[in-house]
Write a sequence for this structure.
């Protein structure tokens, strides 16, 4: 299926499904009564799930807010489980308590970091990426 309008909706749907699959696989480790501390539960989340969210982020960082919202909802569910918070806990409280960035902030930070490093890259086409945008 092609994405003629470059909305990346299909890509983000795939990313969400992949992250959900990984989450279900590591859920026994993250669940409420498991032995690890919250900081030890955040590590696999950041290694496995957040890396799925941020893969190729500079390419699709200009997506619409509804697509960001889809990823943010998934992240909020996962960190709610990790932090053992009730359903009605505000997302801002979750992110502050666990010291996590919301998905749009994280994606834009990684994208800015990528573009800042492009001029010093040894590959000339990569050096010129910033001028092409």
């Amino acid at each position: 299926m092609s994405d003629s309008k470059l909305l990346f909706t299909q890509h983000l749907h795939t990313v969400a499904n992949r992250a959900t699959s990984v989450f279900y696989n590591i859920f026994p480790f993250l669940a409420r009564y498991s032995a690890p501390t919250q900081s030890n539960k955040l590590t696999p989340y950041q290694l496995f799930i957040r890396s799925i969210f941020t893969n190729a982020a500079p390419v699709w960082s200009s997506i619409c807010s509804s697509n960001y919202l889809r990823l943010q909802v998934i992240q909020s569910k996962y960190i709610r489980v990790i932090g053992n918070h009730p359903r009605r806990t505000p997302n801002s409280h979750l992110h502050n308590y666990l010291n996590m960035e919301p998905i749009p902030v994280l994606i834009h930070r990684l994208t800015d970091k990528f573009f800042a490093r492009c001029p010093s890259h040894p590959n000339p086409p990569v050096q010129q990426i910033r001028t092409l945008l």
Notes: Residues 9-104 form one domain. The chain has one domain: 9-104. The CA atoms of residues 11 and 102 lie 19 Å apart.
